[in-house]
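ugh ok fine here u go
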Amino acid sequence: MKAARGIVVMTLGMAAALPAAAQTTTSGTPGPIEIAPPAVSGRSAYVNQIGNANQATVTQTAPNASISIRQDGERNLTTVTQGGDATSYGNVVQTGNENEANLSQRGSGINALYLTQTGIGNRALAQQTGQSGALNGAVLTQAGTFNEMNLLQEGSDNRAALAQDGNGNQMTAAQTGVGNRLIWTQQGNNLSNLGITQTGAQAIQVTQTGGN
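structure:
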């Protein structure tokens, strides 16, 4: 058991002030999303829990798998599965109460994911199935209460930066194929789920603000 180290750089464009429930969508290059590592040799898992009734479950069958989990609060739940022949890296940080994270990494390629949850009752589900080629990478951030986020990545060289700041927001994204880029930001309350799907070599940036 040892701590895993990682560096993540996420660059988001500055958004102008928008009216309530406003939404902007840009097709084209969304900007750099740089994710490092892996290189992982063997298996490692690090779990640090502060508080009461936090739970972390890790299953590693992949030959190269690394996961770091930090839970600070009460009744937070993290479930991680790293399987297949993939090289997989994950970093999960939960601060608050009753947040839930479910991460599945598998396939034959390279997966990397960073997840940060701050607040109460946030839910995040991420599934990465890497194929040969460049890694699939994601940076997921939730701040507030009762936000829901779902991400599917299948293929290679897909990148996603998803962020929710507020309460009761919903987000579902799927990237399949090769070379997709997605930056999706929700700032507000009860913002609708756009259900974004990318099927290869697509770049999208979405900003949602306002709500009620």
